[in-house]
Write a structure and sequence with these properties.
The chain is an alpha/beta fold. It folds into 2 domains: 4-54 and 322-425, Aspartate Aminotransferase, domain 1, CATH 3.90.1150; 62-319, Aspartate Aminotransferase, domain 2. 36% of the residues lie in helices and 16% in strands. A hairpin with a 2-residue loop joins strand 1 and strand 2 (33-36). Helix 4 (82-95) crosses helix 10 (304-319). The longest helix is centred in the last third of the chain and has 21 residues, at 322-342. The chain is globular and about 55 Å long. The two termini are 25 Å apart. The mean pLDDT is 94. The structure holds 4'-deoxy-4'-aminopyridoxal-5'-phosphate (PMP). The site of 4'-deoxy-4'-aminopyridoxal-5'-phosphate (PMP) has 17 residues, from helix 5. Belongs to the class-III pyridoxal-phosphate-dependent aminotransferase family. InterPro entries: Aminotrans_3, PyrdxlP-dep_Trfase, PyrdxlP-dep_Trfase_major, PyrdxlP-dep_Trfase_small.
Length: 427
């Protein structure tokens, strides 16, 4: 067992989540694998909560980081910085948002905070529409728009938040409806809600809910919402912290599955772009981005070493068509896991897109969430040499699979086999 386990108390308040009965100390990684302090090797199907976008220890990223670190490391927000400008230009042109501007932060939380700052200022309203079962980060404002109670420790919100139906397709009062009926019911619910409120500043939504258990609505739901929002001048913020960079295989951004009425007004990103280095950010059209009437700065946002990592990582992703790889290998992995699930009374549903796959567990023969089983499968998978995540609004009973996007077919097969064994071992 890692000797760091006891010393971890120094950094861990009681509410800081840690996986495994004997927490894992990861020492290094390569490709899709990581190693622990005891020398055990694991196939990594969670990539540090989706931060490892391309691969562990990708030589292109390592080289870019060390070369930049040898030149200069400081924060140069007050000065011109070529790496920041180049990455901003590339993200702006990939974003699909017209006249897009980019502001770099150091996390997804800070990106969403900034998006809320922009939207509430632009619209002069502190009301926010958010989705049930959502997760948007850990700051005071981000927890107050987080619909997943397990991750929202305070009710003292600086914002007035109204929660909307629709982020979860397979549970809740509309679950029995067809996709078209589900969408119509959620739109009617939103219209009804807007009839009872002042005008909110924005709707914020994850196209596929991450922490909430990789759940998503039917394609087009947020586009249908957009039509209603437009009538009221309400902005649409797409939280792409987990869904960005082609992870869903079919789309580069999650919002593109909901694009019938145009792109969102604001998009937030983080996690994978730095391949583990801390990059977050906001993209918005210039009019929205420039609505703040004050100086602002992010001391570390856009610093050259993280930007160099982002540029090298993004180039690798695009040059090697890792979005296409996520579609192909993810499709195969979902198929394999569905076959595994069909043989287990514990598996309620295998869902997902590309390399963002959720396996929802229940007590055998019921529809009841089974967090103990999820914890047991996580332990058994680790024993078998596979790291996965868990989440879900239903007492964290959803296994979450989100490997680096360069996952190879034999690795997908290896992971599916270990998971099948882990499900059997967990009983
Ligand atoms: N938004 C979403 C959708 C997320 O999944 C997360 C992190 N799990 C965040 C925001 C917050 O990002 P960070 O942890 O980088 O602050």
């Amino acid at each position: 067992m890692s000797s760091l386990h006891h010393r971890h108390l120094a950094v861990s308040p009681d509410w800081l989540a840690l996986y495994y009965r004997h927490p894992l100390e990861i020492t290094h990684g390569e490709g899709r694998y990581v190693w622990d302090a005891d020398g055990n090797r694991y196939l990594d199907f969670f990539g540090g909560i989706l931060t490892t976008m391309t691969a562990h220890a990708l030589p292109e990223v390592t080289k870019a980081v060390s070369e930049q670190a040898g030149r200069i490391i400081h924060s140069s927000t007050l000065y011109l910085n070529r790496t920041m400008i180049e990455l901003a230009e590339r993200i702006a042109s990939l974003s699909g948002i017209p006249d897009a501007r980019v502001f770099f932060t150091t996390s997804g939380t800070e990106a969403n905070d900034t998006a809320l700052l922009l939207a509430t200022t632009y619209r002069r309203s502190n009301q926010i529409l958010a989705m049930r079962n959502s997760y948007h980060g850990r700051s005071f404002s981000a927890v107050s728009i987080t619909g997943n109670n397990a991750w929202s420790p305070t009710s003292l919100s600086p914002l007035q938040t109204l929660y909307v139906h629709g982020g979860v397709r397979t549970r809740g009062p509309y679950a029995h409806l067809s996709d078209a009926e589900f969408t119509a019911a959620c739109v009617a619910d939103l219209e009804d809600l807007l009839g009872h409120t002042r005008t909110p500043a924005a709707l914020i939504a994850e196209p596929i809910q991450g922490v909430g258990g990789f759940t998503s609505p039917p394609d087009g739901l947020y586009g249908a919402f957009r039509e209603v929002l437009d009538r009221h001048g309400i902005l649409w913020i797409s939280d792409e912290v987990q869904t960005g960079w082609g992870r869903s295989g079919e789309h580069f951004w999650g919002w593109q599955a909901h694009a019938q009425n145009g792109p969102p007004d604001i998009l937030t990103f983080a996690k994978g772009i730095g391949n583990g280095m801390s990059i977050g950010g906001v993209v918005a059209r210039a009019e929205v981005m420039n609505c703040l009437d004050a100086n602002s700065i992010s001391t570390f946002g856009g610093s050259p070493v993280t930007m160099a990592a982002g540029l090298a990582n993004l180039s690798y992703l695009l040059e090697h068509d890792l979005q296409g790889n996520a579609r192909r290998v993810g499709g195969l992995l979902i198929e394999r896991l569905r076959a595994v699930g069909a043989g287990s009374e514990r598996v309620r549903e295998v869902r997902g897109r590309g390399l963002m796959i959720g396996v929802e567990l229940v007590k055998p023969g019921t529809d009841e969430a089974d967090p103990e089983a999820a914890a047991a499968v996580l332990e058994a998978a680790r024993e078998g040499g596979l790291l996965i995540g868990k989440g879900g609004g239903h007492n964290t009973s959803v296994l979450r699979i989100a490997p680096p996007l360069s996952l190879a077919i034999p690795e997908a097969e290896e992971g599916a086999e270990i998971l099948a064994d882990a499900l059997r071992a967990a009983g």
